[in-house]
Every structure is written in C-alpha cells, then in structure tokens.
Design a protein that fits this description.
Oligomer: heterodimer
Number of helices of chain B: 21
Strand order of the largest sheet of chain A: 1-2
Order of helices and strands of chain B: HHEEHHHHHHHHHHHHHHHHHHH
Shape of chain A: globular
Number of domains of chain B: 1
Largest sheet of chain A: 2 strands, antiparallel
Structural class of chain B: mainly alpha
Order of helices and strands of chain A: HHEEHHHHHHHHHHHHHHHHHH
Largest interface: A-B, 32 and 36 residues
Strand order of the largest sheet of chain B: 1-2
Strand content of chain B: under 5%
Number of strands of chain B: 2
Largest sheet of chain B: 2 strands, antiparallel
C-alpha cells in the first residue's frame, strides 16, 4: 500500500487537528488569526498538489482508494474552495458566539471528506466519505446557535440528509446483495456481462436509490427539497461551501459510479438522466424568479446549476464530462465571490433581502462590481467563466443530438433556462445600480484578506472565461480517466 | 498592430484605462473615451483607404490561436462586406461618445460600459471565427442592460431593460445553437469561418441538416435585427435608452444579425436558403408595412424613430431574400446608411430631450425658430429616412428593389409603397410636430447647439450620409465584388431546380462600376 497517495488528505486532516490544538494556546482576541493560518496552509497544500503526478492510475487500501487525474482535479478544486471559504469564515466569526476555531476546523474536516470522495473507488468508501462531508455540514449549518434560522437549517439538513443517507445505504445493500461486491473494479466487470446485474430489477432499484442519495448531494430535482431552506439559514460561508464543495463532491461520485462502473448506457438510463437534467434546470430557474431573499434565490439557482452539470453527465461523452468539470470550476469561483459579497454586505442588516442591495453601486463600487461579475457569470454571458462552461455544455449536448433527438430538446431546455435565469440574476444588478436606495448604511468595510480573496475569485472567473486553454486541458485530462462511450 | 485591430482594440483598451482612473477625474475619463474612439475612427478611415479593391478574399488578416483543441482562434480580417460596416461603426462610436457630454453622473461607469459595448461590436464585425462572432457581440449585452437602467429615461425603463436583454440573449443563444451545429457537422473541426466555408464548398451539408440549422440562424439573428414579429423589444428599448446607447444599438449592434446572416447563413447553407426566402420575404413585409404603420401612430419622438428603424430593417431582409448580387449589395448599403441615420436621429432626439425634458410630440412644436441647426439636421435626417435621393439610403433601397424585382415583384411593389408613402407620412409628421407650428411659451428658454465642438457628431454623421449618398461607388466598389463572390460560390446565380419555374430570368443583375 502506498500511503504517499493520501498525502494531501493526511495534510488536511493534520491541519484541522493542529488548529484545534492551537486553539488551547491562543488568546480569544487572536483566534481569528488561526483561520488565516488555515487558509494559508490550504493554499500551500493546493500549490503542493501540482507537484503530484497522477498520469498513471494508482490505488491504495486494496482498490478502494484511487488516485488519477480526475481525483487530482477535484482535490485541487476542493482545496481552493476550502481556502477561500476559510477566508469568508474569518470574516463571519464575529457573528458566532464562540467556537470560532471549531468552525474553521469543521470546515477543514468537511474538506477532507470531499477530498476522499474524489478518490472513492468502492461503495463503502463512497458512503463513508460522503457521510464525513454530510455529518460535518449538519453541525456547520446550525453553527450560528443564537439564530433560529440557522438552527432550523441545521435540523432540516439533518433530517433530509439522514433520509438520503438511508436511501443510499439501502441501495448499496441491494447492489451488494445482487452482485456480492462493493469493489468498483469487480462491479464494472460484472456489468459487462450480457445477462449481468443490469437486467435485474433489484439491482436497478439499488442503483436508483444510490442515484437518489447522490442527487441529494448535488441538489437535483426531485431530491432538492432541503436546498432553499438550508441555503437561506446556514451561515453564509457554510452556504458557499455547500454550493461549491458539497455539490462537486456529489458530482465526482456520480461521474465515477455512473459513467465508469455501472455505466448509464448499460443501465439504459439515458432518458432518465436527460429528463432529470431538464426538469432540474427548469425547476431551479423558475422557482428562483419570485425569491426576494438573496441566499434563497441562489439556492434555487444552485438547483438549476445542478441541472446544467447533469447535462454534461447525460451526454456520456468526453466532451460532456470535460464541460461538466469546466463548468464546475467556473461555478466555484462564481458562487464563492457571490457569497463572499453577500456575507459582507448583509453583515449590518442581518437579513438578506435583495432590496437591501439598493445603492451598493454607490456605497461600495468594488463589491458591486464583484457581485455584478458573479451574477453575469452565473447567467452565462461572455467574457466570464460561466459563459465558456455553458458553451462547452451546449456544444457537447448538441454533439450527441446526432445520436438521439432528445438531446436537442435538452439543449433547447438549457437555452430557455438561461433566458429565464437572466431575469433574476440581472434583477440583482438592477437592485445594486438603480434600485431604490436601502436605508443608508455607508460604505461596507472590507478587510485586506477578504479583498484579496474576492480579487482571486474575480480573476478566476475572468481567466476561465478569457484564457480557457490550460484549465480546459486539465478538465479534459480528468475526463479521459473515465471509460466513456463517445 | 494592423488598423483593423486598432479599430476595436482601442475602445477596449480605453475601457481598461478608465477602470484605473479615479472617478473624480471626470475630464480625463472623457478625454480617454474621446481619444480612443477617435483613434478607432482614424484607423477605420486608414483601413478604408488602404483596402485593396482589386484583391478578393480577406485582407488585413490576423490569426492568433486561442483554444487549439476546439479549433477556436482570434481570427480577424475584412472583405468588402464588413469593411463599410466597420467604418460606419467607428463613425457612430465616435459620435456616440461626443454626444455623451450630457451625461453628468457616474461618468466612469458610463464611459467604461460605452467603450466596452463599442469595442465588442466592432470586434464582432471584424471576427472571422464563429465563436468570437458570438463572443464579441455578447459583450454588449451587460452594458446595454446597465446603461438603459441607470441613465435611461421614461417610466417603462425597467420593463425595457429586461425586455431588450431577454430578447437579445434569446436571439443570440438560438443563433449560437445554429453556429455550434455548423461547427459540429461541417467536418472542419474548427470555428474558423474561412475553413468551414472551404470545407462546405467541397462537401455541402446534407439537406436535412441545412433545414435544421438555417431556421436557427435565421430566427436567432433575425431576433437581433428585430425581424417582425420579434421586433417589439426594439422601439421601447431605444426609446428608453440614453442617446449614446440608442445610437450604438440602433445604428451598429442591430446590424450584427444581418451581418451574421450574410456572412454565415447565406454562403454556407444555400439549399435551405432557397426554401426559406419565401417566408423571409413575407416577414420582411411585416417590418416594412406593419412597423411603418405603427410608427405613424406614435406619440413619442423616440418611439417613432425606433419603429421607423425597425421598418427600415425590412429593406435589408428584402435584399437578403432576393439572393441576388444587387439585392445583397443593397442590403449592406442600407445597413451602412441606416446605421448613420439611426445614430443621427437618436443623437438629435437626445439633444432635444435634454433641452425640453420631453419627447411627446404634442408638447413639442415650433422649435425650428429656436434651434435652426438642430432643425435643419433633423429635417435632412427625416428626408434621408424617406429615401430621398442624395442620401445614402436612396441608392441602397433602390438596389434592394432592383435586386428583388425578378424574384419577388409583388413584395417590391408593397415595399416601395411602404417606403415612399408610409415613411413619408410619419417622417413628415414628425417634422411638422417638432419643428413647425407655433412655439409654446414654455420652450422659450430652449437653446440650439452652441459652438462648433458639440456640432461635430451631428455634422459628421450627416456628412457621411451625404457623401455616401452622392457618391455611392464608395460603398458599391468594395461591396459588390465580395457579394458577387458569395452569390457565385453559393450558387444563387444559377436557378435552383425548385425555383426555376418562378424565376424566368435567372441572370443576376449587373451593377455598373
């Protein structure tokens, strides 16, 4: 066994533990600095990850842990997300009643869980890693103990998450019962059998239940019920991490399991995934229209984005998976920027009504510009990351249109979704620049580190939109790991 | 850098520079905006002068790979079709920055967005890559939205901003789907327009694919040009926009859809084009007659101009539908002429609005007494709009009618009627209501344009209209060879089997050089 494969995860877990130990020796007024240390360390680990080479697939713990380009892509993704979320969390600690360092450490533990999902190569590993993420998020969502909303969000996430986990365990049990294995590699070989498990209804049911569990993580319709309430109530940095990190963890598990091990094409679920993607896009976008609460609106928008991500999965092609990975990277910078600004602007008011952004264009032109970039990128307008991601997705879907007409319908739905989404994303821009002024609160104070975090997010959005060559190559390397049909 | 790159890079660089200038340096901001657009205009003139009329194909070509794995490159070049459009765009851009002196608040954002918008659309006209064709055009979307919202006028401003944004994105995305399908099925594995054209000439797309892609492009680009019945965003959007945004939009950005049709749809999908032109010719009558009729009934000067600008687009579509050298040449000429005209009228209405705070026709009147300069220019602009000889619109519309006569005689009769009678009615009505009659006492404080500098944008646009009107070969000489090549390569000069019964004389009309 090769422990060095796990070096990134080990470092991250150690970092979390170190922070908790250092907590004892740090006076209360300096505790926020530990967050900075954590963010800097995560950034360091992120840079370290470029030293690793994963061009050949390697395994650890038997075959239950895999290290390849796809895993490495997602580990970098999660590390970057974690570093930025920690920056937002530092800003947020003043609204917490104590436990600042636990807040940081929990974020880091959730990050470790996400990094394990990227390498999960066994159904047990899949379940354990995703539970590590989910259970940490139960605590994080309810961390703002004095706020009823936050508690409510934590409890809702717990109940719905528990249900989803139960589904998933049941599904794994059925799959194990029908095939006698949890190993991905053995399962994949069995699937190729003509009269293999794919034809048995119980196996199909098991896979369907696993899909439900993963659908919960990525917030796809009809497993999305928790999203608006949890997004609204959870502390804003946690919401950002849920949107960027937890969704990506679901996607990587979905990609590995449903494209590599038990391929959608063998399960004959092509239509199912297309329909799921289409409904998710329409539902998310339509429900976002009437929202007045910014975080809730972004919750619905994150459902819509889950639909776009599923679109890439539905194509079963290298181009589609590449597009999904690219889109996810763009989405990472975009939502982190959006929630970063929201976290700052809403600090004074405590509420998150869109109307409270009124006059932000005058009060804090910098924050307004960043939020505008984020909204434009989410809407998918050039020259930002969201546009190039959507372009790749629509291209991949249209490419499959030659094989089945349903893909043309899906592309049409995606376009309609983009048009609908312009309405509410641009509504935010409208509120900032010419909406009615909110009761004046003066310019918003931004600390230096937060400012740099926002600049990094904006740069990420612009680079992914204007210089896509290198990130696209990385995404394609990741996609090529999978045994894809087209 | 080649003058072609200067044309659109200067405004974009100007926008970047303004980003770094502190917001209280208002004069510097305006100076940067004026300087960069003037540089762009001079580059456009240099380009126009240095363009080699003898040479066919693209000139001033620049090719920079962008994403090699997808075959996307920054590929720019001009031929006879986009050359006059770029010149027109550069003139309008400079004029739009000039008239923006009436903007007194948040200048930094204003000029930043205006330059982004202009650089984007000029880049779109220069692009020979399908991806960047779309990319550069979409750069104008967000600036349009914010400019109308923040500096716009009228009670229905919010409605107008969302309407224009949603409509334009819808059109652009439908067209994008068509462009991506072209890329996927052309077999060239590149977004490069020249490579795709070469590939499809050797091996045209199967008919069913052509019939799938052509309507996507036709209606996608059509929505961007306010093709009837998808035109309702245009008059209200222009009516609510600040003058510079309306000038850029009605003048330049709206022409992009037509340009896309001429550049992509007509040469690459000839078979589908043959069968769709009938529908297009009916729809273009909707523009000419219906929107002309709507324009007659407007009570607001900006809405009247907006509707008339939609009506004028009908001529462009008629020229396209003729699939003949004369028709398409005329279409490009109308695009240029109308771009200048729309910019001129919206610039003037913006000045009027600044002076009187209203554009309701019933409130205005007798203003010629107080503003001889504005009155004279407005009068001439309205004449140009009616298609009076001497203005650039006349030769363009005439060529469109000549080109369309052989194939669509009935349409031409109706269009000519619409152009001459309906346009004359609403244009003259506007002149009467705004300039003639008694001067209401509340307008005694109104001032004409003072000094030479504020007159520059209007004079520039008017002179351009007159120069192209008196000497149309300036336009036809570059346009015609390029269009002839297009028509020949796509085989429009040979009667299609399905159409040969209707088309008795298939010979393409010849334009005297």
């Amino acid at each position: 066994m090769n422990l060095s494969l796990l070096s990134l995860e080990i470092l991250v877990v150690l970092l979390g533990l170190c922070l908790m130990v250092l907590d004892w020796f740090t006076p209360a007024e300096h505790k926020r600095r530990l967050g900075l240390v954590g963010a800097a360390a995560l950034l360091g680990i992120f840079i370290l990850s470029f030293v690793l080479d994963a061009s050949s697939t390697q395994h650890a713990f038997g075959h239950s842990y895999v290290m390849d380009n796809l895993a490495l892509f997602f580990k970098r993704f999660f590390l970057l997300a974690g570093a930025v979320v920690l920056l937002w969390a530092i800003e947020f600690t003043e609204r917490l009643r104590g436990g600042a360092v636990e807040f940081f450490a929990l974020i880091i533990f959730a990050l470790a869980g996400m990094m394990f999902t990227a390498s999960a190569n066994n159904l047990a590993m899949l379940f354990v890693s995703i539970e590590l993420v989910t259970i940490t998020f139960y605590i994080l969502a309810g961390f703002q103990r004095q706020a009823q909303q936050s508690l409510e969000s934590g409890v809702k996430y717990l109940i719905m998450g528990g249900l989803a986990s139960a589904f998933m365990v049941f599904g794994i049990a059925l799959v194990f019962g029908m095939t006698g294995t949890m190993e991905y590699e053995i399962l994949a070989i069995k699937m190729l059998n003509k009269n293999g498990p794919a034809t048995q209804p119980l196996f199909q049911l098991g896979m369907l239940l696993i899909l439900a569990g993963l659908g919960f993580k990525i917030a796809a319709v009809p497993f999305h019920i928790w999203v608006p309430d949890v997004y609204q109530g959870a502390p804003t940095p946690v919401t950002a991490f849920l949107a960027a990190g937890s969704k990506a963890a679901g996607i990587v598990l979905l990609l590995r399991l449903f494209l590599n091990v038990t391929p959608i094409s063998i399960l004959k679920w092509e239509t199912l995934v297309i329909v799921l993607a289409g409904i998710t896009i329409l539902y998310g976008n339509l429900c976002a229209i009437p929202q007045r609460n910014l975080k809730r609106m972004l919750g619905y928008s994150s459902i819509a984005h889950a639909g776009y991500l599923l679109m890439g999965v539905a194509t079963l092609s290298v181009a589609g998976v590449t597009a999904t990975l690219y889109y996810l990277s763009g989405y990472l910078f975009t939502v982190l920027a959006a929630f970063g600004v929201i976290s700052l602007v809403m600090r004074e008011t405590g509420a998150e009504d869109i109307a409270l952004l009124g006059g932000l264009g005058r009060r804090s032109p910098f924050l307004a510009a960043i939020l505008t970039l984020a909204m434009v990128s989410l809407a998918g307008v050039p020259p930002l990351a969201g546009f190039f991601g959507k372009f790749l997705l629509i291209k991949a879907v249209l490419q499959q249109g030659a094989n089945a007409g349903a893909y043309y319908v899906l592309a049409g739905v995606a376009i309609i979704g983009v048009i609908i989404s312009l309405w509410y994303y641009f509504g935010v821009i409208k509120a900032m620049y010419w909406g009615d002024d909110a009761p004046d609160m003066g310019p918003v104070e931004v600390s230096v580190f937060t400012k740099w975090g926002l600049v990094v997010c904006a740069a990420g959005m612009l680079i992914l939109g204007l210089m896509p060559e290198v990130p696209l190559a990385l995404a394609e390397q990741g996609a090529l790991v999978l045994r894809l049909l087209y | 850098m080649s003058p072609l790159l200067n044309i659109f890079c200067l405004p974009l660089l100007g926008a970047l520079a303004i980003w770094w200038i502190p917001r209280n340096y208002r004069f510097v901001i305006r100076l940067v905006a004026l300087g960069s657009t003037l540089g762009s205009l001079i580059s456009a003139l240099v380009l126009f002068y240095r363009f080699n009329l003898e040479q066919t194909g693209y000139q001033f070509v620049t090719h920079i790979p962008w994403v090699a794995s997808l075959g996307i490159a920054l590929h720019f070049g001009v031929d006879g079709i986009n050359l006059p459009l770029m010149l027109m765009g550069a003139i309008v851009t400079f004029a739009a920055v000039c008239v923006s002196r009436i903007i007194k608040e948040r200048e930094k954002e204003y000029y930043l967005l205006l330059l982004l918008m202009s650089g984007g659309i000029l880049g779109a006209f220069a692009s020979l890559d399908l991806f960047f064709l779309y990319f550069f055009h979409e750069l104008a979307l967000v600036p349009t939205f914010i400019m109308i919202g923040v500096w716009g006028r009228g009670e229905r401003r919010n409605y107008a901003t969302f309407q224009i944004t949603l409509y334009l994105s819808l059109g652009a995305l439908i067209a994008l789907a068509g462009l991506v399908l072209l890329y996927l099925h052309s077999g060239a594995k590149t977004f490069d327009l020249t490579a795709i054209t070469r590939q499809l000439q050797e091996q045209p797309l199967p008919t069913n694919l052509q019939h799938l892609i052509f309507p996507l492009l036709l209606f996608g680009f059509g929505i961007l040009v306010s093709l009837w019945p998808f035109h309702s965003w245009a008059p209200l959007g222009y009516g609510s926009a600040p003058p510079a945004a309306a000038m850029m939009h009605a003048g330049v950005i709206k022409k992009f859809g037509l340009y896309g049709l001429i550049r992509v749809a007509l040469p690459l999908l000839p078979q589908a084009a043959w069968s769709w032109v009938d529908i297009l010719s009916v729809l273009c009558l909707g523009n000419i007659l219906f929107c002309g009729w709507v324009a007659m009934r407007q009570r607001d000067l900006n809405l009247l101009i907006g509707n008339s600008s939609v009506a004028h687009m009908g001529f462009c579509f008629l020229g396209l539908a003729s699939l003949s050298v004369a028709g398409i040449t005329g279409c490009v000429m109308v695009m240029v002429a109308h771009g200048l005209l729309a910019a001129l009228t919206f610039g003037l209405s913006g000045y009027l609005n600044q002076q009187t705070q209203t554009l309701e026709l019933k409130d205005l009147g007798g203003l010629w007494q107080k503003m001889p300069y504005v009155g004279a220019v407005l009068m001439m602009a309205m004449f140009a709009g009616c298609g009076l000889p001497g203005f650039a619109n006349f030769p363009g519309e005439l060529l469109v009618m000549f080109g369309a006569w052989k194939m669509l005689p009935m349409m031409v009769v109706l269009a000519a009627w619409g152009a001459l009678v309906i346009a004359a009615i609403y244009m003259l009505r506007a002149v009467r209501e705004v300039l003639h009659g008694t001067l209401p006492s509340k307008w005694t404080q109104v001032q004409d344009v003072q000094g030479w500098w504020p007159k520059v944008p209007f004079t520039l646009l008017l002179v351009a209209l007159l120069v192209f009107g008196f000497y149309p070969p300036l336009l036809t000489r570059p346009i015609e060879p390029a269009v002839t090549a297009l028509v020949r390569q796509a085989g429009y000069d040979v009667p299609s089997p399905a159409k040969s019964k209707q088309r008795t004389a298939p010979v393409a009309p010849v334009i005297r050089r």
